[in-house]
Amino acid sequence: MNPSELSYGIFQGSSDIGPVINKGKTFYNHQTEIYSIKGSGTNMWFNSDEFHFLWRRVDGDMILSTQIEFVGKGVEPHRKAGLIIRKNLDPGSPYVSAAYHGDGLVSMQYRLEKDSATYEFRALDDSLDILQLIVHSDTIIMQAAAAGDVLKDIGRIVVNFTGGQEYYTGLFVCSHNPDVVEEANFRNTRLTIPASDSFIPYTDYIGSRLEILDIITGDRKIVFESELPIEAPNWSRDSKFFIINAGGLLYKIPVGGRKIKQINTGFATSNNNDHGLSPDGTQLVISHHAQDRPSGENSVIYILPVRGGTPRQITLNSPSYWHGWSPDGNYLIYTAKRKGTWGIYKISVLGSEEIQLTNSAALDDGSEYSADGKYIWFNSNRTGSMEIWKMRDDGSEQIQITDDEFQNWFPHESPNGDKLVFLSYLPDVDPWDHPYYKYVMLRMLKLKDGIPCGTPKVVAHLYGGQGTMNVHSWSPDRTKLAFVSNSKLIPANKK
User: 495: pLDDT confidence band, cut at 50, 70 and 90?
Assistant: First the structure.
């Protein structure tokens, strides 16, 4: 379905809840993916509510997130907007909300029984405009963050209206004054239906969303959705298309989305998410699982024309997983397992003896050249956690860059060398693994002359992981990033 045909984006209805005097209204901008909601109402508190609700019926686990901005100065300091989960559309319905108030107060508010009292957990900090509600069986968790920061738990509550039942979820605005209409904009709104707890990695899959992140504004846009597990977008050198992998094959997707076209990779039909373009954009490097080698040890690197053709083998030994192409076009760098140890290697695009660049007893992975070709970024768990590292292009001067609580993978430097973006998992993820279907962040470091400045800032919160951003995905003009997030696909809805 064409997104321009939709009235409420991912939602199904827009309703005033309770006896509001002034009717509310919802507008969805299909180009920016911003929801604008006007709402009135006396309050959402005590035993009954008045507000405007943009909703969808959901059954089972889900994650709903957004970033909120009020329009105008407003009248009441306690006007509020946010995310909400309700048993039904009655004014006294049991509910849990993530509320962002006009005076900056952020709280988890809830009513556990019909027509009963309302309670709340208050965040310690104000103006946390990024909100998230997670439903897992009968438990609801609220998280919040300021722009650039990590989401933190605000509260959690056990309810009796989500586990195995249909409920309502969505966005709301309440003016806290029956005579006033207030408005709020909701950006980067995502409703995610996660994988089941029993899913089997690399056997069971859910849908994928190809997204573009504007580094300047922070706005995200979904350009393609698929039931296939699409992974690892490369941005073409002319900015016209992406290359992604799905089900062992490679595809081209126009930057505007919609059409998808398979790339002819000849005999290489078991490609993983380690692929990319040559600096001039004419060639494509792939990592294909050769059938004549032992399973799990059979990834081999090949090069072929970007338009498609017969792959030319580069690495003689396997497993070898490509990650970077030197700016001068002469060398490839990759992760390889040799003599039982994973390290980073370098090889000529003409094919030759490989050159070992790292030699730790841990996992060194995710290598990529700096924009000037003088350095190589990579990730390593040699200190016990997965962190971002840097070395010269000959493997010397290996320096640790990040040192925090997160598991950090796949560093990608911007085309002009002023920024570094990487994928971060939470601390409880095994530092040897980059699994599917987890809460992850894209974080960014500013660079000056190749040296990181300050601390990493979060540029996107998402549900993803493996395949999200394994390979270089900056736009050539350095203003945008492409990445993949995951969810069971949500049917579109007409008004």
Answer: very low
End-to-end Cα separation, the chain, in angstroms: 13
Name all domains of the chain by residue range, CATH numbers in brackets: 3-192 (2.60.120.200), 208-486 (2.120.10.30)
Distances (CA, A) of 399 to 360, 362, 388: 13, 15, 9
pLDDT over threshold 70, residue 4: no
Give 220-248 pLDDT, tens digit per residue: 999 999 998 999 999 999 999 999 999 99
CB 71 within 8 A of CB 79: no
Q: How many helices (H) and strands (E) does the chain have?
A: 0, 39
CA-CA-CA-CA torsion sign (404, 405, 407, 412)? negative
Residue 221 makes CB contacts below 8 A (sequence gap 6+) with: 32, 33, 211, 212, 214
Instruction: Please give the backbone phi and psi of residue 44, each rounded to the nearest 5 degrees, phi first.
Output: -125, 85
DSSP symbols for 357-417? ----SS-EEEEEE-TTSSEEEEEE-TTSS-EEEEEETTS-S-EE---SSSEEEEEEE-TTS
pLDDT digits (tens, 9 = 90+) for 331-374: 999 999 999 999 999 999 998 899 999 999 999 999 999 999 99
Geometric angle at alpha carbon 322, from 267 and 326, rounded to 5°? 120
Query: Which residues, other chains included, contact 42 with Cβ-Cβ below 8 Å and sequence gap of 6+?
Result: 18, 50, 176, 177, 178
Q: Is 122 helix (H, G, I), strand (E, B) or coil?
A: strand
Q: Rounded distance, CA 237 to CA 325, Å?
A: 13
Sheet with 419-425, edge to edge strand ranges: 407-413, 419-425, 438-448, 451-464
